[in-house]
């Protein structure tokens, strides 16, 4: 293999006659597993016929693919059996199994802890024998590997849950993976008219993606990701230290929305009661999915290719969201008196939530920054995944009383009170500070400081008028404003369950 430099990027010169007539790598997911198999078998009247055969009522062959593994859990001990060509005849499914060790099928399932169908992935290849001889690796081989990579992406499109639109993006994971069609077309084009080096091939594939480098850099900036190597939507490279061909996709989008609101003066009972409010609402953020894979060419085993196909630790999902209200103004009047919330010359009136989320494989599954397909699919578990949700809540609401020119005090929220007093992770630990001497605990409490308002109201002569009617009017006005923000988070974003993260963003709506 000859390595040279072209325009500052690595490439490989094409060699001659290599993998065979039709290099191909197929990855087929036979089953994602079934953790409820015990219930399914009991409902189908599980009956043991012999130590290695049982029958079921009805056709369960679609749920019991040939060659998959059924795990019987007895008193905490796992016993695995391989299903041997289950058949359905005359309303009965007959299942033969190949057990491990001396295990025999139980007479009934009631005494077992569980019965689970394990995930199963089949990988088959053709015309890849010469890939074992790494010194014969050429540019044409790279194209064949890219075709296999595209086939891998296509496998995921079979799962219905991947058709669910993600929030804000309004696109599903399959929509994002739909780039694979254009990707494969450009790979086939390159195979018909070889570019001869990785750099030109990479340029062609990025052109097929149709996403400019500047757009990607803007997206990384919004997400706060600093990684000079992420300079393209698609990166094709070679890790010389590990003899590994690498592929990386970076797809996502950003958004920004701003709009003002104005509730004109609403009169109740003539001029006795009135309510008015105004301000601006905003929502902005970004999401990005990175899929990084590799093929270890030095250790590739034609009989077990899944051991040399890897998911790299760059794979993951990142998102950021900022939403809130700015320059909030509310005025509730009772006759000549008013209780108002508005900005000061030196203090803006606002409420804001800044959240971040990320998801990916747990760091413990990686060895040297990679994990093989076999390791992941043979041990598929939620414990292998990790998701985090973070961020802060802050706000300041200057309060005026008994008219809109006398500042009574300011309600402050979260980070506006002090550092680490508005962490989103502490949303379930609200601390209302009603006295100046109260000291909240950073990294534990999420603080709402109302002590200035409490002190101001306590020192006011309440005999002048019904103060509390006025306060409740102001609260109604603030509730109307924050309702916009709550609906945006809770109704459109927060209630959507993100993979691995859940619906914790809805807690932010609950706080508001």
End-to-end separation: 61 Å
Output the number of helix runs. Answer: 10
Structural classification: alpha+beta
Number of domains: 3
Q: Over all CA atoms, what is the radius of gyration?
A: 31 Å
The count of β-strands is: 22
What percent strand? 35-45%
The residue ranges in which pLDDT falls below 50 over 5 or more consecutive positions are 1-21, 130-137, 155-162, 465-469, 492-502
Describe the protein.
The chain has ten helices and 22 strands. By secondary structure, it is an alpha+beta fold. It folds into three domains: 99 residues, no CATH class; 86 residues, Thrombin, subunit H (Beta Barrel), CATH 2.40.10; 202 residues, no CATH class. Strands 11, 12, 13, 14, 15, 16, 17, 18, 19, 20, 21 and 22 form a twelve-stranded mixed sheet that branches. Strands 4-5-8-7-6-9 form a six-stranded antiparallel sheet. A hairpin with a 2-residue loop joins strand 1 and strand 2. Helix 2 runs antiparallel to helix 4.
């Amino acid at each position: 293999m000859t390595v040279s430099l072209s325009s500052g990027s690595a490439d490989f010169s094409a060699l001659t006659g290599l993998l065979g007539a039709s290099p191909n790598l197929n990855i087929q997911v036979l089953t994602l597993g079934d953790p409820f198999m015990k219930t399914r078998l009991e409902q189908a009247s599980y009956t043991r016929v012999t130590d290695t055969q049982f029958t079921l009522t009805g056709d369960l062959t679609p749920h019991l693919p040939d060659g998959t593994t059924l795990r019987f859990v007895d008193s905490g001990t796992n016993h695995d059996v391989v299903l041997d060509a289950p058949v359905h005849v005359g309303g009965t499914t007959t299942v033969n199994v190949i057990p491990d060790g001396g295990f025999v099928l139980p007479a009934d399932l009631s005494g077992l802890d569980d019965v689970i169908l394990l995930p199963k992935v089949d990988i088959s290849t053709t015309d890849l024998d010469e890939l074992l001889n790494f010194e014969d690796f050429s540019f044409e081989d790279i194209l064949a590997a890219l075709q296999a990579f595209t086939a891998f992406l296509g496998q995921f499109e079979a799962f219905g849950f991947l058709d669910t639109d993600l929030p804000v993006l309004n696109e599903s994971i399959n929509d994002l993976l739909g780039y694979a069609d254009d990707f494969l077309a450009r790979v086939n084009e390159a195979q018909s008219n070889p570019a001869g080096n990785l750099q030109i091939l990479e340029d062609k594939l990025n052109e097929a993606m149709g996403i400019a480098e500047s757009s990607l850099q803007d997206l990384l900036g919004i997400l706060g990701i600093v990684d000079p190597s992420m300079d393209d939507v698609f990166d094709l490279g070679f890790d010389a230290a590990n003899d590994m061909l690498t592929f990386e996709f970076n797809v996502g989008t950003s958004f920004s929305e701003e709009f003002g609101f104005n509730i004109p003066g609403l009169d109740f009972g003539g001029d006795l009661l009135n309510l008015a409010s105004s301000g601006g609402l905003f929502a902005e953020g970004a999401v990005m999915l990175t899929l990084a894979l590799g093929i270890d060419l030095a250790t590739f085993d034609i009989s077990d290719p899944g051991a040399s196909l890897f998911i790299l630790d760059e794979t993951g999902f990142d998102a950021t969201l900022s939403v809130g209200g700015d320059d909030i103004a509310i005025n509730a009047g009772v006759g000549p008196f008013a209780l108002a919330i508005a900005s000061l010359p030196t203090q803006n009136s606002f409420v804001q939530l800044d959240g971040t989320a990320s998801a990916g494989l747990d760091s413990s599954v990686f060895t040297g920054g990679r994990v093989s397909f076999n390791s992941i699919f043979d041990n598929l578990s939620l414990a292998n995944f990790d998701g985090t949700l973070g961020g802060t809540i802050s706000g300041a609401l200057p309060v005026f009383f008994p008219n809109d020119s006398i500042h009574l005090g300011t309600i402050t929220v979260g980070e506006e009170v002090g550092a680490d007093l508005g962490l989103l992770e502490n949303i379930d630990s609200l601390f209302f500070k009603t006295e100046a001497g109260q000291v909240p605990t950073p990294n534990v409490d999420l603080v709402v400081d109302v002590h200035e308002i409490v002190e101001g109201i306590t020192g006011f002569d309440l005999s002048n008028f019904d103060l509390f009617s006025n306060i409740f009017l102001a609260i109604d006005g603030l509730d109307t404003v924050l309702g916009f923000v709550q609906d945006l988070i809770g109704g459109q974003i927060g209630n959507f369950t993100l993979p691995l993260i859940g619906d914790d963003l809805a807690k932010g709506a609950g706080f508001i």
